[in-house]
Amino acid sequence: MNEPTKVLYNAECPVCRFEIDHYRSYAQKSDLAIRFDDLNSDALAAWNITSDQAARRLYVAHEGQLYSGIPAFIVLWQEMPRYRFLARIVSLPGLHWCACKTYDLTLAPAIYRWHRIRQRRR
Predict the structure, then answer these.
(1) I need a surface site. Which of 32, 57, 71, 79 has the fewest CB within 10 A?
(2) With a threshold of 0.90, does the pTM exceed it?
């Protein structure tokens, strides 16, 4: 049997938690082989990346490959029947480029900065 697709995310981030909780709920209801690991738990050790790296973007491990950012979202969406259309759309060459640039240069850095601010306030 193949290993489940694994998702590493920051459960302390309200944005990340909201989105991943939605995917987790759908995966559980649909009996999908997807495991969701919080980077703030012992599960991080199996990922071979630091918590700071993990807090910067979404990571997905699938069939022995590690994906991050938009490619990670695409892999995750491909594993969920309801979201396969989104994976196909975001995989289109021009849209894929725009999505990657937006995520890499705007969304992920903004969410990471927010994460760092929350950490300093503790």
Answers:
(1) 32
(2) yes
CA separation (Å) from 59 to 26, 43, 44, 87, 121? 19, 13, 11, 16, 26
**Nearest-angstrom CA–CA distance, 114 and 122:** 13
- Sequence-ordered strand ranges (E) for the chain: 5-9, 34-38, 59-62, 65-68
> CA–CA separation, 52 vs 54, rounded Å?
5
Could you give the CA distance from residue 64 to residue 84 in angstroms, rounded to a whole number?
21
- 5-39 residue pLDDT tens: 999 999 999 999 999 999 999 999 999 999 999 99
User: By C-alpha distance, which of 82, 88, 81, 34 is closest to 58?
Assistant: 34
pLDDT at res. 2: 76
How many residues are there in the chain? 122
